[in-house]
């Protein structure tokens, strides 16, 4: 989840729906026929499509592919890397034309599930599931994110969690400690305001930044079972009072900690202000930590989770975030080879290189050490191990209609034209429409 | 517009020549004849008029100037002295913008623009020739078809075109843009060229026919060379259109390696949100070609616009 | 027989144009009308016939009306600026400025129209930035700091800020069209007005305005149909936000089609755009036909 304008999410869902639709025709739902056992001889051609065309990430995958090809001279891997947005279009066209590569990228959650439901993802339970030696090398929460109906389908590549980054110097100067509860966070904001510092650097130009807060607060305020049912397009109702509570809390958070111009500021502009020491906190994904690590002049920073409100009805251990990963084409003729390559890609050594090259955390145990990762990354990794579950981004986990209603509704709430109740009324309408469409 | 009626093609560009002569004959800056004296009101009115003109020139130019200058600044200068001059000419911003994608987008834009200029101009010239210089069955129906094409707007066709292009495999290729830029601009260009061609004397064709030339030979050797001025106008307007087109380029090309400048710039802006100087340098590079083209071919541009607008 | 064959062979000249038009212009428009009667997305195997449901949905959707209203606002402001202000500019240019400078100014005024909308849009989103944008800086500099705001980020100002950018791009373009029209007015008319003792203002109303009527009609029509086809400006600067406050029909149909995967609804919105712009374009055609017949 790197480049994240709202548009991308829509397309993700569009794509997901698309693939579901494709699968329902013809061979849809047919059990995977791919032979996943290790090939007798490592030979043949593999196709692989990623969304890592960005010059920051692309070389890593090229490097790994080259290394595998060198070790197995009879294997030819055709690696195609496209950008974040193009990937969604590309994979949509590829699956529509039944031309899926052997290995393809997927976000966790409903995006992957659609491929599974369409019979386009190979069941990897025997390889990476519980009790397998390969599976035991991963953090369980990451594998769980690619689980569907009790089976494992994805090979997680990275881990991404949302944290509040804070500037230690600014905190010390204002005499504020790390807040333990949501209420303490609000009080801290007041203190920063009094000291003339902007409490949270918050830019919401494309709408998703706000939804990340709401994702976390929903997970805190709504019982997990209700949340799961509501996020499923077939059963979404959004009648739990916790949703309104979450929006009210968010509204208050922005009022006391944010700025009025948030809708007109990009996330990156807000981030730049945090880096410049002009704001005390900034809510970021762990994949963005590198920006702070490389900040010049350096900043003294650390992270904490957005603290849960006192007495919240939901899961206080849930963490907003999700892993990304790879799926294997269920109809691949070289599935065994594909699995072998993915094992190579997720070796501790390669995982560690990824963390070193661009500061992404790998779900492979022991891949982050003080040698290849900043201390904040390591504490994020420790923390993710503790997370009971990932609360997947609200704008990707839900149906496009619902996500759209949330996005525009929260924007309206921030600019004062809607109340939390009105936002949820819009979401419920959208959920009804989604139910009709899916059911 | 009735440009053709007022100035036959052989008269050439009319918007510069004739009117300017008038300007010399009646100097515009002249006190009203009535009073003879230069009144205060007259002065005030002139001052007001001039300030409107000058004010508008500043309003038009300043943002562009700011764009060019900010392309040389560093972030700190942009944020802290937004009105100031850059402390140094940081060409590296331009170099970085170029490397970070502008070169690729630029090349793509050139490919699509050039190909669509060639296709549009040729196909339109053929059709215009067929329509106004040859006797053709269903000529009127064809003319009506072309005329109707002028009334249809691209936005409306976005969704069916998406279906069409994906089903014939043109989605995400240069061809998608080249074909669409041609198809949607052919009606306009046909009418532009036809209006000019229609004025060419019939005797030319007749003489050539008597010499034994076929229609094909007449077209390539006689008519096309004679139409050069309007072809240049047509090509320039097509360049402006294709270089700047956004909606088709946004929807029908998704591979970053094939994006044209307008869409690429947006992608670049979202990648480099905090690096204003580089983005602004990229904008400057993107804006230059059409501005230069306009400055170089102003007369043809304006002729094309004023004639095309009335068709 | 041979003559007939020769005549038919002439069809080859128009064939490429006709084919292109039929396949890529006419077929899609017709297809759009059909598709607007179905509920479907790009990949659903069988579109489901829903009759006029998509239209009913659009007409019951407040965002649809919001978008339409924004298109109307676009049209009104553009009319005032691109038909009114630019005519005044053109007249001033002709009245006050000497030959050399006039050419220069005319060129300058046109430059924004020669830059792409993306360039202009991205540039203006910098100018509108709430923290560092020139617009707010300028307001502060002249003591109007209280007017500073997040121009593109507030529901009250987003669409107007986009419209303002469009005027920046459009005024010079129509001013140049008017300059050409004014230059075509026979010189004697101005002479006669001067002899009658008419000042510049009266000359403007009694000579210039009536004599550029044709061009004015054209500009009015172009401006209105342009306002209903607006897409790029909004897409680049706000994508329709915040809270859909700056949606126009073009971006709303794009949003429905490619974000919410509601292709049928999007096709219905497209049909509305088609009807409006086709009516305007047909009007233009009728007017220019009549003009030709008059001449």
From TrEMBL, chain A:
Keywords: Signal, Transport. InterPro entries: Bact_solute-bd_prot1, SBP. Pfam families: SBP_bac_1. Gene3D superfamilies: Periplasmic binding protein-like II (3.40.190.10). PANTHER family: ARABINOSE-BINDING PROTEIN-RELATED, OSMOPROTECTIVE COMPOUNDS-BINDING PROTEIN GGTB. Belongs to the bacterial solute-binding protein 1 family. This is Raffinose/stachyose/melibiose transport system substrate-binding protein.
UniProtKB/TrEMBL annotation, chain B:
Residues 1-34 are annotated as: Disordered. It is found in: Cell membrane. The keyword Transmembrane applies. One of its GO terms (biological process) is transmembrane transport. Residues 24-34 have a biased composition (Low complexity). One of its GO terms (cellular component) is plasma membrane. SUPFAM superfamilies: MetI-like. Signal peptide: none annotated. Coiled coil: none annotated. It is a multi-pass membrane protein. Pfam families: BPD_transp_1 (PF00528). The keyword Membrane applies. Keywords: Cell membrane, Membrane, Transmembrane, Transmembrane helix, Transport. Its main location: membrane. Residues 106-297 form the ABC transmembrane type-1 domain. The chain crosses the membrane at residues 47-69, 105-129, 141-162, 174-193, 230-253, 273-295. Belongs to the binding-protein-dependent transport system permease family. This is Raffinose/stachyose/melibiose transport system permease protein. It comes from Nonomuraea pusilla.
TrEMBL record, chain C:
It comes from the Bacteria. Pfam families: BPD_transp_1. It is found in: Cell membrane. GO terms for cellular component: plasma membrane. Residues 68-284 form the ABC transmembrane type-1 domain. It is a multi-pass membrane protein. One of its GO terms (biological process) is transmembrane transport. Keywords: Cell membrane, Membrane, Transmembrane, Transmembrane helix, Transport. The chain crosses the membrane at residues 12-30, 72-93, 105-128, 158-182, 218-237, 263-287. The keyword Membrane applies. SUPFAM superfamilies: MetI-like. Belongs to the binding-protein-dependent transport system permease family. This is Raffinose/stachyose/melibiose transport system permease protein. It comes from Nonomuraea pusilla. The lineage of its organism: Bacteria, Bacillati, Actinomycetota, Actinomycetes, Streptosporangiales.
């Amino acid at each position: 989840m790197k480049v994240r304008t709202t548009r991308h999410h829509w397309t993700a869902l569009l794509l997901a729906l698309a693939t579901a639709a494709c699968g329902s025709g013809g061979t849809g739902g047919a059990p995977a026929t791919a032979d996943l056992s290790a090939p007798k001889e490592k030979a043949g051609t593999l196709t692989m499509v990623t969304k890592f065309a960005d010059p920051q990430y692309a070389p890593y995958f090229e490097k790994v592919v080259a290394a595998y090809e060198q070790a197995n001279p009879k294997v030819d891997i055709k690696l195609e890397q496209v950008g974040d947005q193009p990937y969604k279009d590309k994979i949509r066209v590829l699956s529509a034309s039944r031309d899926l590569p052997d290995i393809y990228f997927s976000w966790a959650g409903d995006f992957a599930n659609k491929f599974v439901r369409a019979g386009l993802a190979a069941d990897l339970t025997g390889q990476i599931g519980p009790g397998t030696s390969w599976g035991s090398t991963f953090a369980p929460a990451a594998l769980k994110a690619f689980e569907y109906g009790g089976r494992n389908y994805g090979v997680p590549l990275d881990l991404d969690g949302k944290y509040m980054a804070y500037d230690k110097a600014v905190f010390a100067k204002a005499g504020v400690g790390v807040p333990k509860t949501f209420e303490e966070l609000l009080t801290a904001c007041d203190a920063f305001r009094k000291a003339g510092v902007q409490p949270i650097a918050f830019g919401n130009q494309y709408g998703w930044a706000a939804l990340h807060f709401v994702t976390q607060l929903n997970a805190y305020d709504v019982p997990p079972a209700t949340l799961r049912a509501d996020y499923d397009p077939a059963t979404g109702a959004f009648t739990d009072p916790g949703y309104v509570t979450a929006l009210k809390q968010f509204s208050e958070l922005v009022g006391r900690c944010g700025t009025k111009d948030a809708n007109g500021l990009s996330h990156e502009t807000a981030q730049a202000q945090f880096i410049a020491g002009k704001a005390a906190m900034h809510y970021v994904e762990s994949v963005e930590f590198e920006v702070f690590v490389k900040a010049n002049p350096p900043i003294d920073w650390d992270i904490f989770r957005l603290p849960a409100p006192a007495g919240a009805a939901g899961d206080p251990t849930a963490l907003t975030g999700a892993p990304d990963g790879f799926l294997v084409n269920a109809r691949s003729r070289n599935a065994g080879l594909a699995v072998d390559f993915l094992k190579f890609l997720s070796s501790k050594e390669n995982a560690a290189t990824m963390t070193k090259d661009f500061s992404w955390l790998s779900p492979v145990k022991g891949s982050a050490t003080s040698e290849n990762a900043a201390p904040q990354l390591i504490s994020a990794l420790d923390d993710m191990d503790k997370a009971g579950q990932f609360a997947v981004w609200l704008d990707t986990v839900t149906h496009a209609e619902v996500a759209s209603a949330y996005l525009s509704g929260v924007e309206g709430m921030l600019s004062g034209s809607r109340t939390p109740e009105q936002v949820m009324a819009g979401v419920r309408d959208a959920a009804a429409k989604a139910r009709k469409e899916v059911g | 517009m009735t440009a053709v009626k007022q100035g036959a093609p052989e008269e050439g560009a009319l918007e510069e020549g004739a009117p300017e002569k008038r300007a010399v004959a009646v100097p515009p800056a002249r006190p009203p004849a009535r009073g003879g004296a230069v009144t205060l009101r007259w002065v005030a009115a002139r001052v007001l008029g001039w300030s409107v003109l000058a004010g508008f020139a500043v309003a038009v130019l300043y943002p562009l100037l700011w764009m060019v200058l900010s392309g040389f600044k560093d972030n700190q200068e942009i944020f802290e002295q937004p009105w100031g001059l850059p402390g140094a000419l940081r060409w590296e911003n331009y170099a970085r913008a170029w490397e970070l994608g502008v070169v690729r987008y630029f090349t793509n834009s050139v490919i699509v623009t050039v190909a669509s200029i060639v296709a549009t101009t040729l196909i339109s010239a053929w059709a215009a020739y067929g329509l106004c210089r040859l006797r053709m069955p269903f000529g009127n129906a064809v003319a009506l078809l072309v005329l109707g094409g002028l009334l249809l707007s691209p936005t409306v066709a976005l969704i069916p075109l998406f279906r069409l292009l994906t089903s014939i495999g043109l989605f995400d290729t240069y061809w998608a843009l080249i074909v669409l830029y041609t198809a949607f601009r052919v009606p306009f260009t046909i009418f532009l060229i036809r209006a000019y061609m229609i004025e060419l004397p019939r005797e030319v064709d007749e003489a050539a026919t008597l010499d034994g030339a076929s229609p094909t030979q007449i077209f390539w050797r006689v008519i096309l060379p004679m139409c050069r001025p309007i072809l240049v106008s047509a090509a320039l307007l097509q360049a402006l259109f294709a270089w700047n087109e956004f909606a088709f380029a946004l929807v029908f090309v998704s591979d970053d390696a094939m994006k044209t400048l307008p869409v690429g710039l947006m992608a670049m802006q979202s990648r480099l949100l905090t690096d204003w100087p580089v983005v602004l340098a990229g904008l400057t590079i993107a804006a230059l070609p059409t501005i230069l083209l306009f400055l170089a071919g102003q007369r043809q541009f304006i002729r094309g616009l004023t004639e095309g607008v009335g068709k | 027989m041979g003559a007939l064959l020769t005549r038919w062979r002439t069809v080859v000249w128009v064939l490429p144009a006709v084919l292109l038009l039929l396949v890529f212009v006419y077929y899609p428009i017709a297809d759009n009308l059909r598709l607007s009667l179905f509920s479907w997305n790009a990949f659903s195997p069988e579109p489901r016939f829903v009759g006029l449901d998509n239209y009913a949905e659009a007409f019951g959707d407040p965002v649809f009306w919001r978008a339409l209203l924004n298109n109307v606002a676009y049209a009104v402001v553009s009319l005032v600026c691109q038909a009114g202000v630019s005519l005044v500019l053109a007249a001033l240019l002709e009245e006050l400025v000497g030959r050399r400078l006039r050419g220069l100014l005319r060129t300058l005024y046109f430059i924004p129209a020669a830059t792409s909308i993306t360039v202009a849009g991205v540039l203006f989103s910098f100018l509108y930035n709430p923290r560092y944008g020139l617009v707010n800086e300028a307001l502060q500099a002249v003591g109007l700091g209280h007017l500073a705001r997040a121009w593109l980020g507030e529901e009250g100002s987003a669409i107007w800020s986009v419209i303002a950018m469009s005027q920046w791009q459009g005024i010079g373009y129509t001013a140049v069209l008017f300059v050409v029209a004014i230059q075509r007015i026979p010189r004697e008319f101005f002479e006669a007005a001067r002899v009658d003792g008419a000042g510049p203002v009266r000359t403007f109303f009694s000579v210039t305005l009536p004599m550029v009527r044709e061009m004015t009609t054209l500009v009015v029509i172009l401006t209105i149909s342009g306002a209903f086809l607006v897409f790029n400006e909004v897409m680049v600067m706000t994508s329709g936000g915040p809270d859909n406050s700056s949606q126009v029909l073009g971006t709303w149909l794009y949003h429905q089609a490619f974000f919410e995967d509601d292709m049928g609804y999007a096709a219905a919105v497209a049909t509305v755009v088609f009807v409006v712009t086709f009516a305007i374009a047909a009007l233009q055609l009728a007017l220019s036909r009549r003009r030709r017949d008059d001449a």
